[in-house]
């Protein structure tokens, strides 16, 4: 078990910081011509406050939209903005809807953006929906645009129960759509949003009456997304930039450096405390805590988690709580040893007696984290998410990894040296 833990720790450490692994591989390749590859490189994703970038706030004008359509319209606009900034090449953009009373705002965070003016210009355009008919291998424009589409709806086939998209045009749009479908039976009529195709259905027959269905092998989520995109063009919502804040990369680097320093100092202080007050078990808990850090950082890379200052704070807090579980177990273990029990029995009984406190303490923290994640804003969500992950891994670290280390040395000569354990 201990060997497996150390192998996993090496792999996790190499994923977190592959430099040492790559240097060892380079040395082996130079000495023995093995041709071994470097470790897989996966960078950490940094948020706006660490990487630098731009924070934009837009006010949405919903005066021409029915109140029942407000949420759907904002969802559609958010979907379009996300697609636009992704096409613009922004890594890990955050587009968020914020409602205050009857006012809707759109918050856009663009980490690493350099040309802010171009990004603002792209985001500020109203979504444009247009229908194009097939001509050879290309599509040509028609007079039918989003202004003639009253709404798009998510529907389900009455026989197969598969999701499909219903379209409803106004009177003028119904005439245009009837003309287009009449001359394109058996051909594709593509729907474009902001110059990019979002669906290219084949016309089965001429469609009159202003109502149509788009069918296909859609999942529920794919159908919902298409409905949002269609409605964002059918119900254009003007947005106005009301606030802009630029964060320089140098400030982000300073924040990251200071955060890392705080984390390292806090981590070393925890290790020192555990070794001084709990001696040998504290040493094992320190090893377990190191593996815990490697594990959590690897998860942050693999998910991936966009790290912000708030997220790092959540991780540091969870690191301190990871030690709490070990402290509870070792305190109980000491009490069992003082009653004359063997080390193995003391460890088992101490873990069993401490588990209820560990479970309840971590459960309440995770519960609060979930509430913050569901109802909080972007930075609060980052704090809550890293806190939840850290707490889940900390329980595994204390119960499984630390116990494995302690059990490994039970039955050896070290077990007889009481001052190491009490």
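Sequence proposed for the structure above (422 residues):
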């Amino acid at each position: 078990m201990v060997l497996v833990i150390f192998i996993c720790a090496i792999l996790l450490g190499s994923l977190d910081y592959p430099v040492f692994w790559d240097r060892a591989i380079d040395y082996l390749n130079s000495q023995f011509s093995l041709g071994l590859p470097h470790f897989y490189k996966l960078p950490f994703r940094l948020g706006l406050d660490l990487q630098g970038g731009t924070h934009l706030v837009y006010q949405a004008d919903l005066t021409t939209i029915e109140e029942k359509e407000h949420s759907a319209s904002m969802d559609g606009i958010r979907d379009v903005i996300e697609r636009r900034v992704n096409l613009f090449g922004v890594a890990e953009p955050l587009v968020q809807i914020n409602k205050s009373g009857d006012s809707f705002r759109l918050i856009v965070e663009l980490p690493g953006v350099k040309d802010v003016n171009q990004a603002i210009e792209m985001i500020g355009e109203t979504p444009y929906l247009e229908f194009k008919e097939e001509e050879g291998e290309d599509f040509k424009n028609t007079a039918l645009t989003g202004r003639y589409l009253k709404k798009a709806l998510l529907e389900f086939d009455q026989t197969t129960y598969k999701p499909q998209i219903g379209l409803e045009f106004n009177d003028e749009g119904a005439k245009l759509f009837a003309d287009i479908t009449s001359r394109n039976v058996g051909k594709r009529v593509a729907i474009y949003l902001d110059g990019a195709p979002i669906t290219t259905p084949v016309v089965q027959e001429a469609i009159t009456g202003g109502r149509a269905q788009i069918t296909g092998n859609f999942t529920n989520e794919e159908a919902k997304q298409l409905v949002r995109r269609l409605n964002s063009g059918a119900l254009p919502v003007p947005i106005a930039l009301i606030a802009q804040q630029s964060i320089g990369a140098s400030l982000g680097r300073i924040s990251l450096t200071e955060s890392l320093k705080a984390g390292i100092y806090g981590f070393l202080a925890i290790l020192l405390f555990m070794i001084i007050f709990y001696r040998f078990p504290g040493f094992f808990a320190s090893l377990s805590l190191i593996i815990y850090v490697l594990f959590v950082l690897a998860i942050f890379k693999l998910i991936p988690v966009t790290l912000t200052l708030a997220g790092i704070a959540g991780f540091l807090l969870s690191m301190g709580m990871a030690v709490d579980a070990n402290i509870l177990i070792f305190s109980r273990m000491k009490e069992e040893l003082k009653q004359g029990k063997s080390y193995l029995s003391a460890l088992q009984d101490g873990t069993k007696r401490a588990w209820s406190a560990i479970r309840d303490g971590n459960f309440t923290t995770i519960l609060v984290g979930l509430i913050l994640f569901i109802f909080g804003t972007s930075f609060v969500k980052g704090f809550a998410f890293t806190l939840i992950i850290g707490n889940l891994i900390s329980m595994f670290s204390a119960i499984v990894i630390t116990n494995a280390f302690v059990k490994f040395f039970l039955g050896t000569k070290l077990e007889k040296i009481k001052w190491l354990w009490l």
